[in-house]
Automatic annotation (TrEMBL):
<keyword id="KW-0812">Transmembrane</keyword>
<keyword id="KW-1133">Transmembrane helix</keyword>
<keyword id="KW-0448">Lipopolysaccharide biosynthesis</keyword>
<dbReference type="GO" id="GO:0005886">
    <property type="term" value="C:plasma membrane"/>
</dbReference>
<keyword id="KW-0328">Glycosyltransferase</keyword>
<dbReference type="InterPro" id="IPR050256">
    <property type="entry name" value="Glycosyltransferase_2"/>
</dbReference>
<feature type="region of interest" description="Disordered">
    <location>
        <begin position="243"/>
        <end position="263"/>
    </location>
</feature>
<dbReference type="GO" id="GO:0009103">
    <property type="term" value="P:lipopolysaccharide biosynthetic process"/>
</dbReference>
<dbReference type="GO" id="GO:0099621">
    <property type="term" value="F:undecaprenyl-phosphate 4-deoxy-4-formamido-L-arabinose transferase activity"/>
</dbReference>
<dbReference type="InterPro" id="IPR001173">
    <property type="entry name" value="Glyco_trans_2-like"/>
</dbReference>
<protein>
    <submittedName>
        <fullName>Dolichol-phosphate mannosyltransferase</fullName>
    </submittedName>
</protein>
<keyword id="KW-0472">Membrane</keyword>
<feature type="domain" description="Glycosyltransferase 2-like">
    <location>
        <begin position="9"/>
        <end position="172"/>
    </location>
</feature>
<keyword id="KW-0808">Transferase</keyword>
<keyword id="KW-1003">Cell membrane</keyword>
<dbReference type="Pfam" id="PF00535">
    <property type="entry name" value="Glycos_transf_2"/>
</dbReference>
<dbReference type="InterPro" id="IPR029044">
    <property type="entry name" value="Nucleotide-diphossugar_trans"/>
</dbReference>
Length: 263
């Protein structure tokens, strides 16, 4: 498929993931061989050989687009950069550590095409890592965080931290952008009047490199972030448009009669 007119843009934010670049790019290309797509990597100020690894693939992977932040601005900023540069009407996000399985993207894509019909609220399909391949501390802390977040924000999403999500580009660009927003995309989509559906996806152990996140630093910023999203929810009401009256009703209304009466 030619990347000239992609239907789907895969946005992958990375920081210091040099050994994972080539394997994951190959997996994405294989998974989406039947879908016109582009692969947008956003290097968030890596200090390892991530930039060199991406540069080495550009000549052999026509669908690959590489963007780079001069300094690290965070995962959410990298996703925003990628989505703004994307040319596809639909976006799939994927963590760059190899733990999300690109083979799950076609199933999410098919679901979105079947259920994201025109005239209905926009749809986000969120991955749900049913069988986590992380250590016990990480699994327990994630379960606790998901429970607190779901209770306070009412997003009805069992695994908002999964990096694998699929949504319309226009929907994402309508959301407020802020640091760590990627952890609250379901709540933000619901706030915007959209729909969120969670679908089971595969989760794999990290085979190469080291995580850029620790358990304590996530918890430290999580409380402030949740309070901020709660503030956003309270400061916005979703407008609901009334259906226009039938043309015959409008024609017989007093206003219409007056307008049609000659002086």
């Amino acid at each position: 498929m030619s990347p000239a007119d992609p239907l789907l843009s895969v946005v992958v934010p990375v920081r210091n993931e040099a050994p994972n670049i080539a394997p994951l790019v190959a997996e994405i290309g294989a998974a989406l061989a039947g879908v016109p797509h582009e692969i947008i990597y956003v290097d968030d100020g890596s200090s390892d050989a991530t930039a060199e690894a991406l540069a080495g693939l550009r000549a052999t992977v026509p669908a690959l687009v590489v963007l780079r932040h001069a300094v690290s601005c965070g995962q959410s900023a990298a996703i925003v950069t990628g989505v703004r540069a994307a040319r596809g009407a639909w976006i799939a996000t994927l963590d760059g550590d190899g733990q999300n399985d690109p083979a799950d993207i076609p199933a999410l894509w098919d679901y979105a095409q079947a259920h994201g019909t025109p005239g209905q609220p926009p749809l986000m399909v969120a991955g749900w890592r049913v069988n986590r391949r992380d250590n016990q501390v990480k699994r327990l802390s994630s379960r606790l965080a998901n429970g607190i977040r779901a209770r306070l924000l009412g997003d009805a999403t069992p695994d908002t931290g999964c990096g694998l999500k699929l949504f319309p580009r226009a929907l994402f660009l309508s959301l407020p952008a802020f640091d760590h927003m990627h952890r609250f995309l379901p709540a933000l989509v619901l706030r915007q009047g959209g729909r969120v559906v969670s679908r089971p996806v595969n989760h794999r152990p990290r085979l190469r490199g080291q995580s850029n996140y620790g358990t304590l630093d996530r918890l430290a910023v999580g409380v402030t972030d949740i309070l901020g999203v709660m503030w956003l929810q309270r400061r916005w009401k979703r407008p609901q448009l009334l259906a226009a009256p039938p043309a015959s009703t409008m024609a017989s209304s007093p206003a219409s009669s007056l307008a049609a009466t000659p002086e």
